[in-house]
């Protein structure tokens, strides 16, 4: 997996700085370390809210229409590294500390922002670029969603509409090759039933009044997973 590492093969050398010193180079090395931990990067699927992860955490998904590079002020920026940082931090906080998705998402977003700024990039410019490729839950381009995508973020966000559309897609025969259609459909329907039971909301997801509040909770203009 090729990324714009600052030192992909060179051994670590102790910086002539205190270990606790926060610097752009240290942040760049941190991104390298996180990227190397990713077992599989998948860019072949449609992913709600741009990026996500498999249930076992071994695969990070980035939407297939999201460019891996961005031309910014004469520089070619590898955006995958920032998304990988976000998803790995978020997934770890949810699995290891049992945090609610929205809490984990906030921390992961702050980490992503710090990495972007450390690279000398305006967070506003970066976020504006990313928002162009976000597929919301009502986006008709969501036709190829991975079977093992972790649904916890969508459950926590009460995205019943998305789950219903995923189930409909499977019913129409649109699902990954080699996947047991009946089992996948049953899991999504079971997840939808669980969401409906615990959220106590009408079928179809959040109401029109509730949706803006959910967007505000993520801290971004357009919700990004």
A few lines on this structure:
Helices cover 46% and strands 8% of the residues. It is mainly alpha-helical.
Q: Can you offer a commentary on this structure?
A:
The chain has helices at 24-37, 80-97, 101-118, 123-131, 152-156, 160-171, 181-199, 210-218, and strands spanning 40-42, 51-53, 59-62, 69-72, 75-78. It is mainly α and 225 residues long. β4 and β5 (75-78) form a beta hairpin. α1 crosses α2. The model is unreliable at 198-222 (pLDDT under 50).
Query: Largest sheet at a glance?
Result: 3 strands, mixed
Spatial extent as radius of gyration: 18 Å
Low-confidence segments, given as residue ranges, are 198-222
List how many beta strands DSSP finds.
Answer: 5
Percent strand: 5-15%
- What spatial form do the alpha-carbon principal axes imply? globular
**Helix and strand sequence:** HEEEEEHHHHHHH
- The residue fraction in helices comes out at 40-55%
| Ends distance | 23 Å
Sheet with most strands: strand arrangement: 1-3-2
Describe the secondary structure blueprint for this structure.
Elements: H1 24-37, E1 40-42, E2 51-53, E3 59-62, E4 69-72, E5 75-78, H2 80-97, H3 101-118, H4 123-131, H5 152-156, H6 160-171, H7 181-199, H8 210-218
Parallel strand pairs: 1-3
Antiparallel strand pairs: 2-3, 4-5
Helix pairs in contact: 1-2, 2-3, 6-7
């Amino acid at each position: 997996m090729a990324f714009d590492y600052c030192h992909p093969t060179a051994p670590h050398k102790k910086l002539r700085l205190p270990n606790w010193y926060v610097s752009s180079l240290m942040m760049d090395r941190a991104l390298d370390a996180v990227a190397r931990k990713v077992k599989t990067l998948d860019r072949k699927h449609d992913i709600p809210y741009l990026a996500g992860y498999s249930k076992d955490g071994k695969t990070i998904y980035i939407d297939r229409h999201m460019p891996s590079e961005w031309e910014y002020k004469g520089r070619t920026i590898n955006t995958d590294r920032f998304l990988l940082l976000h998803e790995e931090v978020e997934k770890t906080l949810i699995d290891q500390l049992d945090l609610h998705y929205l809490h984990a998402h906030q921390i992961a977003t702050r980490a992503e922002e710090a990495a972007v700024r450390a690279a000398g990039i305006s967070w506003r410019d970066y976020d504006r670029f990313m928002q162009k490729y976000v597929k919301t839950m009502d986006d008709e381009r969501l036709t190829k969603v991975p079977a093992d995508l972790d649904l916890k973020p969508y459950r926590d966000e009460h995205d019943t509409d998305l789950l219903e559309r995923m189930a409909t897609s499977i019913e129409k025969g649109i699902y990954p090759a080699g996947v047991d259609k009946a089992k996948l459909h049953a899991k999504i329907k079971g997840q939808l039933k669980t969401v409906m039971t615990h959220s106590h909301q009408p079928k179809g997801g959040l109401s029109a009044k509730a949706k803006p509040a959910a967007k505000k909770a993520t801290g971004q203009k357009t919700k990004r997973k």
